[in-house]
User: Fold this.
Amino acid sequence: MSKDIVIALDEGTTNAKAVALDEQGNVVAKSSRPLSIQTPREGWVEQSGELLLQASLAVVGEVVAQVGPERVAALAISNQRETAIGWYRASGLPLGPAITWQCSRTADFCHALRDQGQEAKIKAVTGLPVAPLFSASKMRWLLGSVPNGQALAEQGEICLGTIDSWLLWHLTAGESFCCDYSNASRTQLLNLQTAEWDAEMLALFQIPRQALAEIRPSSGLFGYTKGLDAIPDGIPVMAMIGDSHAALFAHGLGAAGCVKATYGTGSSVMAPVVSAQCDVKALATTVAWHDGERLVYGLEGNIPHTGDAVAWMAEITGLNTLSEAELAQALNTLPASVESTLGVYFVPALTGLGAPWWDEDARGLIHGLSRGVKRAHLVRAALESITYQIADVVLAMRQHGDFALKALMVDGGPTKNDWLMQYQADLLGCPVMRSDVPELSAMGAALLARKALVQVDTEQLRQYLPEHMTFIPDDQRHGRLQKRWHEWQSAVQLARTQKNQAG
Assistant:
């Protein structure tokens, strides 16, 4: 039997999933484990790196058993981005919990950078605005959280990495300490022009170079599995890529005008662009991927609370007591049961606002309450908040010279809501094309691994791309929704000022 299977590990914020894809790109086996999130203080969000690893190894092992180890040609990894973890090189044990992308514990440090006038330089070098979202300030915090952390890192005894490098280290028994260009570009330490760790940024964040991983193309050999109970030795890891980047790749291989929005706990809106132009202040310019032949850039806005906003509203309104199927039905039917929100706007700045506002001091609010507001109006306001936040990012993207929007390509759990997708299409005035493949990030990583295995051009992978369902915008409704969108933006400004007023 030939080695025809690529197993993609998709390590997200709330689940670790492994998916086996055959030579035709069909999903032939999969496994999933839930992951927990801890919030020990206001604004702090963290996860156990050891539990992330255990769940990831377990699901890969289960899928290997399902397909048979003799069929496995390669592994691929897609991962939650910006989440930072540190570990001791000798033991592989973590310094402490992984600090997730949602965490805002480094807000004061980021404020200090802005006060020092560093933001313009950081943006010009790395493509990223100053924000607690990105990994460098988290890595700085991790070194300060353990005795002699800085000295140990300078001596090469501590490793600092994104989740891809943490997983790879343990998959290969510590023999490979690498990350890919897409994850490196999310740290705020990569120079976009040279595609190397930047000495000035390392000095600014006080991160020793010897504590960081080697950067490699997203498609190519990263190392071989070794010393694992349920995973045979010698399986090559042939791709690593951030999960949002992987989804963009699986949607359309980076075709111009195909803008991607992943709807999950938070959302990533990403557009492929041909240059590393960094002058759109509100957005990140990033490396979308390196396919083994060339770097592809992406223009991106990150939103911390989209699906998370709906989950919070479901809890507040008592919908969280429903079964998963009943909750999904309620989220489809409740917003359609009312003609509007009765003027209610929900700004889900639960740990601050991301793109295009980048205001970690903002706090959530429900604006416009009146006596007639019922649960359906509140649920609708939560769902509408997703579409407005994505429209805000798209509006900012239009400032980039390479940006084009032919269709919004969407994926993620909340996209199963047809009402939400139609509202998004009507608001933006462009087709929304939904992939109903739940394993899209895993598929993108697997395609990059397949490319490296069989040595084909990226365009030759197009035959494996999934089908999409299209939501066509209603032009008349598009015009009407512009007023609501402007009212939403006014509510955002209230969310940004209320904390200062309270102080």
Observations:
- The mean pLDDT is 94.
- The chain is about 35% helix and 20% strand.
- The first strand starts at residue 5 and ends at 11.
